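dumping the sequnces here before i forget
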Amino acid sequence: MHRRTAAASFVILVLSQSPAIGETPPSAAFTPAEMEKILRHSPLPPVPDDPSNAVATSRRAARLGQRLFYDTRGSASGIVSCATCHDPKRDWSNGRNVGTLDARFPRNVPSLWNIAYGRWFFWDGRADSMWAQALGPMENPVEMNGNRLGYARLVRNDRRLKRRYERVFGPLPDLDDALRFPRVAKPTPPTPDEPANLAWLAMTKADRESIDRVFSNLGKAIAAYERALISTDSPFDRFVRDLRAGAASPGGLDESAQRGLKLFVGKGQCSICHSGPNFTDREFHDLGRPSGYMRRDPGRAGGYRLVVADPFNRLGLLSDSTSGALVRFVPEAGGPSTQAIGQFKTPTLRSVAQTAPYMHDGRITTLRDVAVFYSTLGGSIFGHRERILKPLQLSGAQIDDLVSFLNTLTGAPIRPSLLGPPLGRRAATRHKE
Amino acid sequence: MPAFRLVLALWMTLGTVVCTTARALAIDSSASAVSARTATTAGKHLRVRYEPRPDPIPLDEPFAIRVYVEPDASSSTRTASPSGRRIEVRGWMPEHLHGMPLAPLVTPAGDGVWNVDGMLLHMTGHWQLFIDVMDDDKRDRATFDVELR
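..and the predicted 3d for all of it:
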């Protein structure tokens, strides 16, 4: 009798968990194929390793990087920092169409949410590590327009910064000899006659290497900080958690958002490119968006050339490991490099509702307009538009549903202490009080 | 009575384990289903086989393959591998009209064997792997279908 009761309890237990076996989805709205796709989008896994950055997980490096991220002193104007464009109050973007119209190819400022899951960086993938990405705007003439000698000297001359740097990376070079280490120097290959470039070339190879080492270390510290900028634990994540637990009424998504999710993994085919837990395949595609600015942006085709030539790439002397360096497989002229014309990186959709405007050129203002674009695919084509892109011909209600779903991808707030320069020990104590 | 409770607890534990495993199996979606990894080239003279590492082929993660080329058993032309033989490997999505984002590196391992690094199938869907065998100017292609889910 007891045995029969125990066996019956087992059967009841199995039946009570039957949705988990995959035969009957907890929500009748999703087919098993849709369920399989949905479950792949959550949870977000731990932040992947970056072998090229030996201090990627160092807390001291992250605090130094946080300090540098908000420091304007290295810029030519003295008023621009990383946070000027990657504004924590604007979900690490700047709310404008593009960073600057002065750029050769004006592009939208990508949010930094979940940047640590990336494989390539910038819209065109011209950097292959977070730290190499961080170095680009620091010297870019239309961004911070600083110079690597200036950054090295900034750290050297700030007693606290110097101490913090040397705790992580060891001694800084002595920069006192003005003949060896000019005030302003950086390589500017496109404009070889620029005084900063001439000053850079006048330095000895050994001195240039020691400055490059310092400069790359600053990028590595900033990258260590940026690894903490994680968008997760969104309503969608709660929904998937409930689905996995076999909840009869999973929370997090209302009916409209659930219909939007069904479109996302089904008819909309959004999840083909916006795949995986970070809602991106980390690679590049051409939507055939009409060119909105004066020049036609080559996108990934230009990024291929730049990442190979970048002395800070993961195969370079300043990379802490060449393990996993995909830049060695970047195609040369022809083949994939030809198909790459007009391709841009698939952005993450996590917290996408907070990072308007959209697309690489920032020319779509709202998420609803993005859905309308995919519904109609209006405009002339530049490059090789993805063949599978067809006008979705969504109804107004379907567009609303898709937007409702995208709104559920906003992550939980991160630690407030990450949203500005780190507080000193005394200030932090006062803050707690 | 305690014995009954013990049996009940054991059954419940076992049940939970079975359910959890079943759920894991149901949720785990192995990335690839490969229809065949051996094919005869279009010219019918060569048999080409590949082994992916890791196996199955992962979605949107780099992987490598080892390629074996040998005369096809049914071919009337039985020649040893020419010393200058090369191979080229390419991935292609016919429905998308684009290929892999990377250019794989091919390294000869001798005796009709090549190692190919830098493969990346970044999207779900139907892929074709083209393995071209080149003897001097002659190119002979083996085509493989890969479905990535």
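The interface with chain A takes residues 3-4, 7-8, 11-12, 14-16, 18-20, 22-23, 26-27, 29, 59-60, 62, 90, 95-105, 117-118, 120, 122-125, 149 of chain B (CB under 8 Å).
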